[in-house]
Amino acid sequence: MPSSQLNVLVVDDFQSMRRIIKNLLEQIGFTQIFEAEDGKSALAELSKREFGLIISDWNMAPMTGLELLRNIRGQDKLKSLPFIMITAESKTDNVVAAKEAGVDNYIVKPFNAATLKSKIEAVIG
Amino acid sequence: MVDEPAITDEEYSAVEEQLYASSLGRDFLRRRDEHMRAVALSEFHSLVSDLKASISGPAPGADRGEHVALLRRELQEMSAHIEQTRLEIAAIRPDESASNNRILQATGELDAIVSATERATSDILMSAERVQEIVERVRDEGMTDKSCDELEAQATEIFMACSFQDITGQRTTKVVNTLRYLEQRINAMVKIWGVDGFDSAEIEAEETDQRPDAALLNGPALTDGINQDDIDALMAG
Asked: C-alpha distances in angstroms, B152 versus A27, B128, B136, B147, B197?
């Protein structure tokens, strides 16, 4: 389903979580997977190369996933970049805030491989 | 209904100025001021007399000595309560050392849990990755695709199960932050009440669960979130 050439950025402050998501992405067929541990370092990665998908956690310091999303949606060059939020924040207010900020899909932890795959398919086809 | 004043401030000033302009008028104003002073003084003396009478006179319906005794008892009880509060605060934070500070201890234990689960998760992930590598190798060596797929699926399950560490880590961090906040508030109370140096041994420990992890047995509340289906509905809406 996905293009193996598509660059994917995984943003999470938990190293284990990045490892889990990266492994799942590899199983799905992605080969170009990059990592960042918070929103700020994600922006640095985004300035280095073009990405086709970003999968980000919410709770990170110094820049949260929501702040990262808003920043990306405010940049002409990046405003259309598909963005999936994967987070333990499952309150309705959180989902609504992310949707209003322009998130393409929202996955609540704990999730399974099938959920991740279906959400990625829904976002990038 | 409020009556309108018969004369405005400006009109009053104008009349007063006119009176000042003549000798008769000035005499009138002087006499008026003297009269007003006399009335004010008389009212003041009357008020002082009333106060004297109410202070020195017997209280209606009760013995004065009984009132004083009651007041003294109330003050003594208040003083005892204040003292007890100071001791209770001292018991929460007897001194600065980590070994005696229960909040610091609890915070440290929670931090240790996060570190331990992080290490365990990393080890499990490493093993799952190793399983995946082995599956790739045995697939090349001729093991059936069905068996290899099953093994890979199980490795994936192990990966997904490891995501618990992220969630428990975040929730534990929230508890740690709450404990740190409580500690700050208690420190502020200590400062306000000046309980440093109190002997916390004066407070008897309550009979509670004595297990080392007794304070950690209640997990975080899980009722305020929504599930993935609800989130999907929100995203679609």
From this structure: 9, 9, 9, 9, 62
Mean of the pLDDT values across residues B108-132?
A: 89
- Would you say residue B178 lies in a domain? no
On whether ipTM exceeds 0.85, the answer is no
- Cβ contact (<8 Å) for B167 and A59? no
Residues of chain A with C-beta less than 8 angstroms from the C-beta of B126: none
Number of domains in chain A: 1
**Region B84-100 average pLDDT:** 66
The answer to whether residue A4 neighbours chain B at the CB level (below 8 Å) is no
Cβ–Cβ gap B163/A111 under 8 Å: yes
Give the largest Cα separation in chain A, rounded. 35
Within a domain: residue A57?
yes
What integer is the mean pLDDT of A15-29?
90
Contact of A38 with chain B, judged by CB distance below 8 Å, is answered with: no
- Owning domain of residue B25: 9-50
| B75 located within any domain | no
* Amino acid B220: pLDDT: 40
Residue A109 domain flag: yes
